[in-house]
């Protein structure tokens, strides 16, 4: 475990719950949790991270709580910090890949809630991610497909955050200008810094997509929690399964989308099966009428092209499963939901401008035997 990883994850987790703390203080609280009088004492120790036994947890929390009180935090905040450190310590006692996956999920949540101060501590974050990249490279060379999955999500997460920020436009240009010795304004220096910080992720993704001995993204592990679903609806041959990202499958779907959109992976039946398995878990975790209807309608051409040769047609039984799963979650995919919209803006019509019908068209489900419907209804009630 790396204390920087723990502190960074802790900081993001506390921000999501509106607990604002200084990172310098969090280093002190974590050090206290492990029994050190200060972060300096923690750093001076050769093997500072100690395994905390169940008996020691209460005492460790107390030490962290008291350190927070000494730094003038309110008791409620100090208690929340101590409990959060204890909870995160549980995750960080797990193997490296689970640590990284948990960190990436926390990072995604912080970005989603717009509560991550991404560039306030760019040097610290860059060092943290450099450590991840080094660990992942070693594990990938050892043949770990879970490490490949973590590396993919890490790279795509950072590249998307960078590319979606309009402030980073022309980063390569200003970086090259700085290399020639030109003096840049603070804003342009920041853009050049961001470009430099993103290079390790670009390089790792290039390695993964170019080195054939490493890469077979279509052979990545599928989510373990969809195995029973796949056993029922799909014929899985030699599939490998993972427990990583079960609570955040959308991160994997986003990463696979990125590979396909950037033409970094070839489309194939295997890739389609992989994508579908992670998309199914996303629908099971976060069901919505529109998302399930889109999945059913596009099951034969999910990537915007004719996929008839891939034999990806969804079975009639599966369509009825999703119908019953929708009912379990409060919506009916067969019912229309039409609204009036403005033809120019696409917004809901407010009485002005040209009018047209928009919204949701209910699906027509194929007929299946009554017994099959009962089976699908029972499955929808119990599968997740």
Characterize the structure shown:
The chain is mainly alpha-helical. It is built from 16 helices and four strands. The protein has helices spanning 3-16, 23-33, 39-44, 54-70, 75-92, 96-112, 122-141, 145-163, 171-179, 186-210, 227-233, 249-261, 269-285, 289-297, 316-328, 370-382, and strands at residues 222-223, 241-242, 337-342, 355-360. The strands form two sheets. A two-stranded parallel ribbon has the order 1-2. Helix 11 links the parallel strand 1 and strand 2 (241-242). Helix 1 (3-16) packs parallel to helix 6 (96-112), helix 9 crosses helix 10 and helix 15 (316-328) crosses helix 16. It is globular.
Brief description of this entry?
Helix content is about 60%, strand content about 5%. The protein is mostly helical.
Radius of gyration: 25 Å
Overall form: globular
Strand order of the largest sheet: 1-2
Tally the beta strands: 4
Element-by-element helix/strand order: HHHHHHHHHHEHEHHHHEEH
Percent helix range: 55-70%
Distance between the termini: 32 Å
Q: Number of helix segments?
A: 16
Give the overall pLDDT as a whole number. Answer: 83
Keywords:
384 residues, two-stranded antiparallel sheet, 16 helices
What is the secondary structure topology, with strand pairs?
Elements lengths: L2 H14 L6 H11 L5 H6 L9 H17 L4 H18 L3 H17 L9 H20 L3 H19 L7 H9 L6 H25 L11 E2 L3 H7 L7 E2 L6 H13 L7 H17 L3 H9 L18 H13 L8 E6 L12 E6 L9 H13 L2
Parallel strand pairs: 1-2
Antiparallel strand pairs: 3-4
Helix pairs in contact: 1-2, 1-5, 1-6, 2-4, 2-5, 4-5, 6-8, 7-8, 7-10, 8-10, 8-12, 9-10, 12-13, 15-16
């Amino acid at each position: 475990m790396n204390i920087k990883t723990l502190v960074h994850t802790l900081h993001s987790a506390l921000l999501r719950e509106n607990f604002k703390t200084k990172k310098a203080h969090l280093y002190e609280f974590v050090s206290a949790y492990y029994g050190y009088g200060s972060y300096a004492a923690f750093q001076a120790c050769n093997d500072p991270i100690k395994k905390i036994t169940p008996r020691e947890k209460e005492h460790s929390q107390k030490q962290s709580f008291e350190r927070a009180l000494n730094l003038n935090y309110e008791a409620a905040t100090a208690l929340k910090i101590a409990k959060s450190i204890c909870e995160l310590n549980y995750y960080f006692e797990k193997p490296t890949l689970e640590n990284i996956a948990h960190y990436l999920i926390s990072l995604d949540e912080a970005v989603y809630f717009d509560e991550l101060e991404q560039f306030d501590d760019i040097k610290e974050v860059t060092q943290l991610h450099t450590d991840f990249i080094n660990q992942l490279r070693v594990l990938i060379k050892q043949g770990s497909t879970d490490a490949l999955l973590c590396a993919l999500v890490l790279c795509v997460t950072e590249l998307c955050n960078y590319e979606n920020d309009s402030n980073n436009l022309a980063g390569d240009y200003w970086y090259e200008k700085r290399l020639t010795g030109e003096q840049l304004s603070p804003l342009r220096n920041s853009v050049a810094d961001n470009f430099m910080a993103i290079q390790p992720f670009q390089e790792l993704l290039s390695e993964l997509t170019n080195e054939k001995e490493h890469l077979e993204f279509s052979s990545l592990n599928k989510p373990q929690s969809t195995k029973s679903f796949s056993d029922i609806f799909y014929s899985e041959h030699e599939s490998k399964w993972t427990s990583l990202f079960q609570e955040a499958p959308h991160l994997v779907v986003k990463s696979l989308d990125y590979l396909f959109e950037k033409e970094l992976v070839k489309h194939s039946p295997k890739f389609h099966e992989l994508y579908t398995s992670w998309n199914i878990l996303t629908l099971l975790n976060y069901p919505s009428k529109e998302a399930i209807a889109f999945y059913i309608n596009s099951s034969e051409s999910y990537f915007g092209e004719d996929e008839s040769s891939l034999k990806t047609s969804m079975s009639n039984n599966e369509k009825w499963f999703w119908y019953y799963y929708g009912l379990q979650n409060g919506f009916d995919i067969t019912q229309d939901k039409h609204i009036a919209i403005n033809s120019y803006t696409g917004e809901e019509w407010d009485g002005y401008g040209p009018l047209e019908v928009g919204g949701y068209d209910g699906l027509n489900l194929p007929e299946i035997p009554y017994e099959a419907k009962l089976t699908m209804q029972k499955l929808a009630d119990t599968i997740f």
